[in-house]
Amino acid sequence: MRVAKLGGSVASRLSGILDELKAGGDVLIVPGGWIFADSVRELDEQRRLPPSAAHWMCIAGMEMYAHYISSFGVNAVEDLKEEEIKGLCVLLPYKTLRLADELPHSWDVTSDSIAVWVASKLGVEEVIKITNVDGVYVDGEFVERVEASALIGKKTCVDSFAPKLMVETGIDMFVCNGLVEGRVKNYILGGRAKGTLIEGK
């Protein structure tokens, strides 16, 4: 089984990315927050929402994006049960996260961290982060491989809590540009594509 974080930044090529993910067998998509989380961030800037309110509103936004993804013929699942994850599925995350509530209620935690957390619960060793950039840049330079511990405290395309969680759980993350046709499929089938492997182990 694979876990793929699918960002809203690649929604313009969603159909093609989903076709590529189907090559991966059993894949659980963790949706990003897309325009829905952006609207929460804007409201927070205007009204200074309580952190917990903003947290749950953003996760509700992830659920909205999940329903949009499911409209492309992807099976939506609410629970982290391996027997339900067959073929390509998308997680409706609100129920699972509300019941567990193990992550900080902070803007440091986005769907990146949630995808790592989901992978840890399923015993999956790697998350594929599908986004609109080629990978991670450290001090302005693109890197093909980097330890998660080296990213703690640095601003990158990955949220600031995810590297800490990757170190704690030993989970890796491969950052892949989903706007470039074939990269997701190449990585799934061949284990190689342009991108950055962040090593949690």
UniProtKB/TrEMBL annotation:
Keywords: Kinase, Transferase. Transmembrane segments: none annotated. This is Aspartate/glutamate/uridylate kinase. GO terms for molecular function: kinase activity. Coiled coil: none annotated. It comes from Archaeoglobus veneficus (strain DSM 11195 / SNP6). The keyword Cytoplasm does not apply. SUPFAM superfamilies: Carbamate kinase-like. It comes from the Archaea.
